[in-house]
Amino acid sequence: MEYLTDEILLMIFKHLHTDEITVISQVNKRFCNVAKDVSLYRTLSFKNKLLLSAKYIHTLMHRYKEQMLSLSLMECFWIPSNSLKLALESCCNLRELYLTGSNLQFSALELIINNNPYLTKLAWSVPDKYSLVPLIHPTTGLPTQTYHQTQKMFKRLTSIMLRFNSLPSFEHFLPIFDSNEILVNELGLEYFSDHSSCFNTIGNSYSLYIKSEEKFLVRLRDAVIVNRYLHFNLIVMDFIIQTVREAADTGSLTALIAPGTSNSFCWNYIKSVFKTISFKKIDLSYCILGKEQMAWLSNLKQLKHLNLSNVSLFKLNLMKVVALNNPMLVSLNLSSCHDWIEKDLHGLEALALHCRHLKELNLSSLHIHSVNTDINKLCQTVSKIKTLKALAIPACGLVNNMFPNTDDKNETLHRMSTSKSVSSLVLTTGFSPQHHCTPSKLFKLETSESGSYYTRNTRLSLEDENLVCQSGCGLDFIVEYCVQIEELEVVDTGFNSAFGGMNSQKDQYFCPPTFYLKDKVFFSICKLQSLRKLTLAGLSGVGMFSSLCQITGSCCLLEELSIAHCGQSGHSGSLSSLRQAVLNCKRLKKFRLDQPYFHLKENILEAFHSCKNLQLLCLISKNGKIPKKVEHYVNLFYQCQNLVGFFLFSGASASDSKKIHTELNHLFGKARRSSCITVLSYLNSLTEEGLKKVPYIYLRDVIKFESYVASCKSQTIP
Fold this sequence. Notes:
The chain is α/β, with parallel strands linked by helices. It contains 25 helices and 24 strands. The strands form 3 sheets. The protein has a 20-stranded mixed beta sheet. Helix 22 links the parallel strand 23 and strand 24. The two termini are 31 Å apart.
């Protein structure tokens, strides 16, 4: 970059976030002079929340207050409310303001909106205290002054995005939209309940995002629905249906995110959605699709982001049609879509052939296997999508295909039918050279004398000579052709995390055991030189996992590493190579380990000293031991100056954990911006009380173990 002209440098800087410009301006004097150009600060966006102090942000905002048109302070939770208010009071020319995850009270927000008459876009986290302010007078039943002030404030906005931290504040705010005056192009509501949602399913987290090319009414009127969805009460569901209906009537919807909210009964009240074919972003995860909904999906031709995770009855031919009609598709999430795979891979093959811009593909918790062939068709098909940059694939899908180890097929089937270790699902396939994954609701599983279902590991005995797996691994196909992959997730479908939503469905499918995935098969990951994020979970056959050292040594760009339940839990040699693997990660920024009975030793903590860029460290070990001396953790913080998120949940006693927690927070809790230090015993970390002070962003992105491949762009509110 030193040989580029100032004009070209300025064009490059315009694509960077404000905090990134701050860093690059310190490289040399020339970069510093270019970074002073006023045009760079029309949009202030602080993406890296771990870098800049509240004082510096305040100074920068005050310096460019007249030129600044857009300001993003999302997830800047460490800035005090008063400091944020003072910094924003100087702004008078804003068009866009994004404050979700930051601390700003309603009175301060009202003042800021009044000071910026041209403001049209707002994103704000509604404080819990707001729910204590009455909007309707308790005796007269008339709207209060606060009600009118809030409604007037939102009246001139064209984009409203709100986040709620509690259900009372969520419901309390909805009457503001009960009018015929608030017209918007974008509406986003995000609800991440209390900290217990970190351990439960989608029932405790919720998001709604609607975007249209034309304005639509935001209101709550004409309640006609009579059912409830999970713990949300009647008023919330009515609001969703009425708002989506108003937006759909414009006929120009471009985005709809409503995971889990549209069951077969609700679809009847938003039929106008099916007349709109201008969608570019859709998230219908956890929904039930009927014939009418599938016919509507088959007519869409502008999709870029599609999330259909955990969708039932999503058939094969529909996936093929979607791939043919949407060649500009960028991200696709099909995790846990068990029912849409029937007998072959034509749907995925159509993706590989026609979607030449596909960058993110999530196939986690899918069961796609074939028999009587030496080729892993799933991995071979995925490898044809050479534009992939993010891939999530189940571990069982990497095991090369199963085939009978005898020429007498009838004898093999007879022996399998008399073996309790094999599900009767396999008997229906007849070992046809096709890809079978039929839901168990169509066929009964073998049961034991007690009547319980056999698990996947017991259904297929490793000692059964009638079924063997082809040597090798389908991962070789992927790493050879998909060389641009930056994010890779390999998670066993039998893996269950106590912290989050990456949990397997009921064990209903016949899969090759992932025990066949030995340590050596993962050496091929070393070929992914662009790899920045790696997640490996539930791999029981890797033993000491020595290949992890080779991976971290070869993938020099690796910034995020997450390991969970790899090797034999409780075995003394499990993850014995972890120390050397960490030493190889010179650019590591985020590390997460969830390993039962893993003893955290002093030398492993010392290994992190070489990770100078480390920002987030999460270590979870059920019944695992940890060093009791606080000095080991203090040295870690001194060596890693950027470490602001430290989470340690172990088998240590509550008193020992509290001692470490108190000392670290005393030394570093306020000294480092956006810091969050939590040390708990494993059992306490599973309670609501244990994590009640952990910020939302850390609960979602660090502690909660969940797949975000092809989900972030389709689920999160912009």
